[in-house]
UniProtKB/TrEMBL annotation:
Protein name: Helix-turn-helix domain-containing protein
Lineage: Bacteria, Bacillati, Bacillota, Bacilli, Lactobacillales
The keyword Aminoacyl-tRNA synthetase is assigned to this record: no
Residue span(s) of domain Mga helix-turn-helix: 72-156
Keyword Nucleus: no
One Pfam family in the UniProt entry: Mga
Residue span(s) of domain M protein trans-acting positive regulator (MGA) HTH: 9-51
Stored PANTHER family: CRYPTIC BETA-GLUCOSIDE BGL OPERON ANTITERMINATOR (PTHR30185), TRANSCRIPTIONAL REGULATOR MTLR (PTHR30185:SF18)
Organism for this UniProt entry: Vagococcus allomyrinae
Keywords: Transcription, Transcription regulation
Length: 480
């Protein structure tokens, strides 16, 4: 979908993505990455600094450029701007809310020309055809596979607007009440994040059917539903002014034959007793989690809940279209920094599982780490600790300050000892009993690895130590 940003939008996205996880970067480095000259990149930076305020790209003749994001903003704000500046995405959003009779009508709304509209629609249709829907020319509206139209706009609205979805407040409130009532009648207690995603999904479906009653899924409708589900479908169909009841529940929670997005673990395991295919998948997830428990030497508090989360997340992600950016890569990099040993252990198990079951490794790894917070609570405490010596010769306060920072950040990775003896007296002990030396002294003579970190310990120093721990654990695992 990033193709719909246009050449300039893609160029700016690539530059921002590259700057996001780095400090100072030279324009020459960005130029070699993007294959655009430095003059073009400078123009992009000027443009972005006008449109992204208060987010900014700071420039320095000596150091290069870096991305500055204030604490109350995030990269999502940048995505919002890039999507807003794209004529293609603007057209898609406009016709989602209402169809237009002609290109002239739509051009007036978007303050452009009919020629620009028609060219953009051709580009859009080339990109979205793989999802089996398109934009018709007379009238200008969405046609094709209604399920993927719904999936696309659920994904797009969530990507662009985050918490401020521009759907009618009355619609969202009505759907919220219907979903809440359904959960109460079924005795299900959904997590707020799952409930909010469900509400958004249902709201898009109701909006599409309220706009045009023919916007139904082409699928077989289940012969029977529970009384609570029937009431849910009837209430939303009435609100959408439909002559016939639409099965909103199945539209969202039964996306395909044999696929079940469930409201609770109890519902999922109950359905697995009726479906051999579902039971086989849940059993395979159970085997995967068993292997992880064994290798990390800990037990999940509730394996059923973790399997439920893993299954639901993996299925829901099948029905999300990536609009812009690669959040999976960002998030997994954070996991790698926070819990490196856990990351290495789990990633190896997941890779073997993915190869055996012919599924995408990176996606599955993302689902596994998303399935429970216990990787970040219990799991991180199971990481091997490196024995680290911290030695300062001249500035006691600086050394103590570094000790405080490092013991907090690397609580479950480093066992840090503050060396208070004269270095010459303890050199042999450091070489014999420690894995790493951190000191303020340059080029100190020791046989073990050492890091020279002055009193102003920086983010770069922290990341270097995180990478060192990761590399050490990786070497240790490779040698086993």
């Amino acid at each position: 979908m990033e193709r719909l940003l246009g050449k300039q939008g893609i160029r700016m996205l690539n530059m921002i993505t590259y700057l996001y996880s780095r400090e100072w970067v030279t324009l020459q480095e960005i130029s070699s990455l993007t294959n655009f000259n430095e003059r073009t990149l400078r123009e992009d930076i000027k443009y972005l600094n006008v449109h992204l305020h208060p987010i900014a790209i700071e420039s320095s003749k000596k150091s290069g450029v870096r991305l500055i994001i204030p604490t109350n903003y995030s990269i999502n704000y940048i995505y919002y701007m890039l999507l807003s500046e794209s004529i293609e995405f603007s057209i898609l959003e406009a016709i989602f809310f209402r169809p237009y009779d002609t290109a002239d009508d739509l051009a007036k709304v978007l303050y452009t020309s009919p020629h620009v509209i028609n060219k953009a629609i051709k580009r859009i249709n080339q990109v979205i055809k793989k999802y089996n829907f398109s934009i018709s020319s007379t009238p200008i509206k969405l046609i094709g596979d209604e399920q993927w139209i719904t999936v696309f706009f659920r994904s797009y609205l969530l990507e662009k607007y985050d918490n401020n979805i521009p759907l009618d407040n009355e619609l969202i409130e009505h759907v919220y009440n219907a979903v809440t009532s359904l959960c109460q009648k079924l005795g299900e207690n959904m997590k707020p994040i799952n409930r909010n995603l469900l509400i958004l999904y249902v709201s898009v479906r109701v909006h599409r059917l309220k706009q045009d009653s023919s916007n139904r899924y082409s699928r077989k409708v289940p012969s029977s539903q529970s009384a609570a589900v029937n009431e849910f479908n009837y209430e939303l169909s009435t609100y959408a002014n439909l002559n016939e009841v639409n099965d909103f529940f199945s539209d969202i929670c039964r996306p395909s034959d044999g696929q079940y997005i469930c409201l609770s673990a109890e519902e999922l395991f109950s359905l697995s007793a009726q479906s051999a295919r579902l039971k086989e998948k849940l059993d395979s997830y159970s085997d995967l989690l068993n292997s992880i428990e064994k290798k990390l030497n800990f037990t999940f508090h509730s394996k059923k809940a973790t399997i439920f989360n893993l299954y639901n997340i993996s299925l829901q992600e099948e029905y999300i279209i990536p609009i812009i950016g690669n959040k999976t890569e960002f998030l997994l990099n954070h996991v790698k920094e926070l819990i490196p040993f856990v990351y290495l252990t789990v990633s190896k198990i997941v890779m073997e599982f993915a190869d055996h079951h012919n599924v995408d490794y990176t996606s599955l790894l993302y689902y596994v780490f998303s399935s429970t917070k216990e990787f970040f609570t219990i799991g991180r405490t199971r990481q091997p600790k490196l024995k680290v010596a911290l030695y300062g010769r001249y500035n006691n306060l600086a050394t103590t300050n570094n000790w405080s920072i490092l013991t907090t950040i690397f609580e479950h990775q480093f066992d840090i000892t503050l060396i208070e003896s004269t270095f010459e007296d303890i050199r042999e002990e450091i070489n014999q009993y420690y894995d790493l030396l951190i000191t303020e002294i340059n080029d100190i003579e020791v046989e073990i690895d050492s890091f020279c970190i002055p009193f102003d310990i920086s983010t770069k120093d922290i990341r270097s130590l995180q990478q060192y721990y990761f590399d050490t654990m990786n070497q240790m695992k490779a040698s086993i």
